[in-house]
């Protein structure tokens, strides 16, 4: 008897959750080689070409390929990560690494981000590999690129692979994560994501004995003023293609929608959006978020220096010079006593909506879900950016069930009690199978 693809995908998802590849950002964490072994077992006997790579001991990634017959056909890569973020076990209703299937939902860390999609990718590749083994090879190549370290920026995962495994650079297009949620009656396909331009602001104050605080202006006071100024940072509002698509799909009140379509009134419109306002604010401008503060070493000394760390997310087209200019203008009231230090960052990336792959994904998503689609700009980041930087189009794609509004997606991802419904896995599997078939079949 041939196993049902949905059942095998659910089982594979459970096994990947149980591998518990928790990435806390340190080199020794993750140990994604455990998930790699799960995938190796799953693909065994399919005749897919499989290579395993380790950037560091235990930091495993897997690349599986089914070769096509036409060298001029598309070479489709399905990019999924194997690592997951840490958990607070006491806050979970169930074992976060149990992979329990309860009332039609698979529970566990990584179920949404993004092991359900990595499992679906593996199922599609195995089906294509088994067909090739049976004498029905695809026209184009299909690759599963299952990587380590996405949750910590990809240094030990896709970035390392692109430098050390030439096979992953052979793809002509990529399907990745961060799509499938609903905006009103529309289903999102991610076409781009904001960049990261982290900064550390070092400030100077006047040291003093803490027993006589009157009139002092120590570093803590300066840092507090810097944080206040940053809350009022004036980054340019940009209302481009993805913004207009968001407004059309999500905002039914025409009065509010009209305000959102113009830079002079967009702030007033965002204030009327309710829970989606945070996302709307993020994708309409570069954002500045203080995340760490440090000053002082003794309780009785008003310190002379301190630092404020900023998570800064940039829109496409915003470079480092523009970020620094905004910071200097914003912090000018502090006087000359501050310095700006650059942290690890990368530019925003965006793929075209006119590519052949995007057109196929759009058609298939609508056929499977019954919903029109919109291009999504993600506020966060993913490994897709590495391919976009190479000029290879990459799109976040899935078809989640109708309950998956953007709000639910944000509530479940990296959250306590993370879980995904089997209906969403089935819809995604159906859509992926169809889309891949149209590109390489």
Describe the structure.
- This protein is α+β, with helices and mostly antiparallel strands and 441 residues long.
- The protein has helices at residues 5-18, 33-43, 111-133, 158-164, 219-231, 241-250, 254-260, 266-270, 277-283, 320-331, 356-369, 384-389, 406-412, 422-440; strands spanning 49-54, 60-66, 76-81, 101-102, 105-107, 142-147, 173-176, 182-183, 186-193, 195-204, 208-209, 287-295, 301-302, 305-314, 338-346, 349-350, 373-378, 394-396, 419-421.
- The chain has a 6-stranded mixed sheet with strand order 1-2-6-3-7-18. Strands 8, 9, 16 and 17 form a 4-stranded mixed sheet that branches. A 4-stranded antiparallel sheet has the order 12-14-10-15, with helices on one face.
- Strand 1 (49-54) and strand 2 form a beta hairpin.
- Helix 1 crosses helix 14 (422-440) and helix 3 (111-133) packs across helix 14 (422-440).
Quick recap:
By secondary structure, the protein is of the alpha+beta class. It is 35% helix and 23% strand.
Low-confidence stretches: none
β-strand amount:
15-25%
Largest sheet: 6 strands, mixed
- Radius of gyration over alpha carbons? 24 Å
The shape is globular
Structural class, from secondary structure content? alpha+beta
**Number of helices, counting only DSSP H or I runs of 4 residues or more:** 14
Query: What order do the strands of the largest sheet run in, or round the barrel if closed?
Result: 1-2-6-3-7-18
Number of strands: 19
Q: Please, what is the average pLDDT? A: 96
Keywords:
alpha+beta, four-stranded mixed β-sheet
